[in-house]
Amino acid sequence: MSNLDRQAALAVCGGRGFVVADPVRELLTPRRVPLGESTEVRRLLPNLGRRMVGAWCFVDHYGPDDIADEPGMQVPPHPHMGLQTVSWLHEGEVLHRDSVGSLQTIRPRELGLMTSGRAISHSEESPKSHARFLHGAQLWVALPDAHRHVEPHFQHHAELPHVTAPGLTATVILGELDGAVSPGSTYTPIVGADLALARGTETGIPLVPDFEYAVLSMSGEAHVDGVPLLPGSMLYLGCGRSELPVRAESDAGLMLLGGEPFEEELIMWWNFIGRSQEEIETARDDWMKGSRFGEVHGYAGDRLSAPDLPPVPLKPRGRVR
């Protein structure tokens, strides 16, 4: 799960100064970004209008892509620091390898959760024999200062808890929703849930008023708090809600993302999250020298080189533009 942008920009994220304390309906427009050899993603976070939702700091939506005669996802070994990656599929498979020795095929509605901690590297690829369609989301969760140097590790959970109501099945990916708790490790108050809605369903999703939330549309057509949401778009909702009304115009898939607003200010560049520009520069140098981030074995190809750092000093921009 990588940011492959060859002109990655330094950005300051986090802090409570720009958290919207009241309910809002802010539609975020995606930016199209190539990922590997044959996959294009729609990037929703970081966005020109908003950089974080709780601890969620990076959201890509991709597919459905017909990869029957294509290699599919091919992301060479690359580093991460200071974050967790969340792999979530609706269709297809992704083979995960990392520098702590993990080798795992992730399938639809299974949680692939990698905690980078101080340093890890990994690759992602569609298996040689793969399903025709690839459709999913790739997300990052920022680690708070107290836990950002933990030992790197990977978790795979094929069975996750559900919350059900007429016409709704909610799979709890991370955190807690309506009393159901994901087995995935978390380090801040957070929630991530996959909402599968049958056509004609009209229901309310219980929320925590102190959390800020956003909803990503994966498939179908649904109205979220009265706003029509089509696949590949995301609606930022702010805080102050105890329930979220949703209505499905067709069979629809949504992802609910939320959490306690992230108080610390972060610097995010390429695939690193740190607290200073110097820390980011050191991480880049370590990756290019082949130290600290370990080695990924078994990927048929070279690892990624880091892009050049911007030639100008970091300009803090906060949670929003």
TrEMBL record:
One Pfam assignment: Pirin
Record flagged with keyword Metal-binding: yes
Highest taxon above the source species: Bacteria
Keyword Membrane recorded: no
Organism: Streptomyces wuyuanensis
Chain positions recorded as Fe cation binding sites: H78, H80, H122, E124
Keywords: Iron, Metal-binding
Family membership: Belongs to the pirin family.
InterPro entries in alphabetical order: Pirin, Pirin_C_dom, Pirin_N_dom, RmlC-like_jellyroll, RmlC_Cupin_sf
Single GO molecular function: metal ion binding
Cofactor(s) the protein needs: Fe cation
Boundaries of every Pirin C-terminal domain copy: 193-292
Protein name: Pirin
Record-annotated Pirin N-terminal domain positions: 41-141
Cofactor notes: Binds 1 Fe cation per subunit.
